[in-house]
Design a protein that fits this description.
Elements: E1 25-28, E2 31-34
Antiparallel strand pairs: 1-2
């Protein structure tokens, strides 16, 4: 098995303030993702 990093795409979405912490999984509409940044 080989492990490597692969380039990904970032989709920017708006979340309510204070709801999302970096690294958390979230669903916005029909999009699933991992938060890259915390919302202030």
């Amino acid at each position: 098995m080989k492990n490597y990093h692969q380039n990904g795409h970032i989709v920017r979405v708006t979340t309510p303030a204070g709801v999302t912490a970096s690294g958390n999984a979230l669903i916005v509409g029909s999009i699933f993702g991992i938060a890259a940044y915390s919302s202030a």
